[in-house]
TrEMBL record:
PANTHER family: ARCHAEMETZINCIN (PTHR15910), ARCHAEMETZINCIN-2 (PTHR15910:SF1)
Signal peptide: none
InterPro entries, A to Z: MetalloPept_cat_dom_sf (IPR024079), Pept_M54_archaemetzincn (IPR012962), Pept_M54_archaemetzncn_arc/bac (IPR012091)
Protein name, UniProt field: Peptidase zinc-dependent
Gene3D superfamilies: Collagenase (Catalytic Domain) (3.40.390.10)
Organism: Thermodesulfobacterium commune DSM 2178
């Protein structure tokens, strides 16, 4: 069965937020989505000089436990992430291993000194998880600024884009999903 596993690592999100995320992802990708609460030590990814975690290292740590290459895994964390050459990232994906990590730390309006807004937070979370899952389905960054696959360098970029794919990215995704049925990728 086609399955997306989302691991909530040291993070607790309201059921309403998780249900909205699940509904969106199942509609977009046609995969079943399951959530798992998990205690997992990813302290090896921590960089004390930056007070951030390197996203690729979290993916490395999780990859040791992934047995089914057909599954798509999203590791959802609430710590601040960075990647080499970037001050921060909202997430990162490794399509070959089928694992992505998404942080909701910078998606929360409170990170910017604003009051928590569940609607804004949920929309941002849906966009970023969809974006990273898009990479797991081998979609590249898109040049259409409103496409969910456009690169987000700031929170304003996240807010600007839609939570769905542009026509071109959706066509590539449908082609991949169709090939998956034929060739059992």
């Amino acid at each position: 069965m086609k399955k997306i596993s989302i691991f909530l690592v040291y993070t607790d999100l309201k059921d309403d937020i998780l249900l909205a995320l699940k509904s969106h992802l199942e509609t977009i990708f046609g995969y079943s989505v399951n959530f798992y609460g998990l205690v997992f030590d990813f302290s090896l990814a921590y960089n004390p000089k930056r007070n951030q975690y390197i996203s690729s290292k979290i993916i490395d740590l999780f990859s040791k436990y992934k047995k089914n290459l057909k599954e798509k895994w999203v590791v959802l964390v609430d710590v601040d992430l960075y990647s080499h050459g970037l001050n921060f990232v909202f997430g990162e994906a490794d399509p070959k291993r089928g694992i992505a990590v998404v942080s909701h730390a910078r998606l929360n309006p409170e990170f910017y000194g604003l009051a928590f807004d569940e609607k804004i937070f949920t929309e941002r979370l849906i966009k970023e998880v969809t974006h990273e899952l898009g990479h797991l389905f081998f979609l590249p960054h898109c040049f259409h600024p409103n496409c969910v696959m456009s690169f987000s360098n700031t929170i304003a970029d996240v807010d600007r884009k839609n939570k769905s794919f542009c026509f071109i990215c959706e066509s590539f995704l449908k082609t991949y999903l169709c090939m998956e049925k034929i060739f059992i990728i």
